[in-house]
Automatic annotation (TrEMBL):
Gene name linked to the record: LOC120255335
Lineage summary: Eukaryota, Viridiplantae, Streptophyta, Embryophyta, Tracheophyta
One GO cellular component term noted in the UniProt record for this chain: plasma membrane
GO MF entry, a single one: electron transfer activity
Role, per record: May act as a carbohydrate transporter.
Name of this chain's protein: Lamin-like protein
Organism: Dioscorea cayennensis subsp. rotundata
Transmembrane regions listed in the UniProt entry: 138-163
Keywords linked to the UniProt accession: Disulfide bond, Glycoprotein, Membrane, Signal, Transmembrane, Transmembrane helix
InterPro entries referenced in this protein's UniProt entry, alphabetically: Cupredoxin, Phytocyanin-like, Phytocyanin_dom
Keyword Transmembrane helix in annotation: yes
Length: 164
């Protein structure tokens, strides 16, 4: 029982530290004509360790990370990061801060820009008041009791055979 409990705790811990993956613009992707403010409001809050995935048409768009002033002006002349290769770009939100992304192909003026506020992960919920009660409830189930009884019978029979 202890190895199983350890495995479950490890699995829940690893799931809690891996972030969520968000496709920017959902099924519409990183394209003109998408209301990214609405998209952010639909998916927020964003947490440390989450991922943004931008899908776009190669040669038709790019993903440029900029500061707030450049975001407001749609100015890509001093990018923090600029990505235009391929058809997608995955970006990990690895700091608690505001992130700003624009398209430098002129679509920013049509709203092809997104601002993300990243927060720390909320603290985990408190454990149940009686954490040891759940495993013991298994002991009282009829199927578990029957399985244990069968196991003891088999062990006893093997022991009797070994003693002869």
């Amino acid at each position: 029982m202890a190895p199983l409990l350890s495995l479950l705790l490890l699995l829940s811990f690893s799931l809690s530290i891996s972030g969520n993956k968000f496709t920017v613009g959902d099924e519409k992707g990183w394209n003109p004509g998408v209301n990214y403010t609405t998209w952010v409001n639909k998916h927020k809050p964003f947490y440390l360790g989450d991922w943004l995935v931008f899908y776009y048409q190669s040669g038709m768009a790019d993903v440029v990370q900029v500061d707030e002033t450049s975001y407001e002006k749609c100015d890509a002349s001093n990018p923090i990061r600029n990505y235009s290769k391929g058809r997608s770009y995955a970006f990990e939100l690895n700091e608690t801060k505001h992130y700003y992304f624009i398209c430098s192909y002129g679509y920013c003026y049509q709203g092809m820009k997104v601002a993300i506020n990243v927060q720390k992960l909320p603290p985990p919920s408190p454990p149940p008041s009686h954490p040891s009660a759940a495993p013991f409830s298994l002991l009282y189930s009829s199927s578990f009791s029957a399985a244990v009884a069968g196991l003891f019978s088999a062990v006893a029979a093997a022991g009797i055979l070994l003693l002869r």
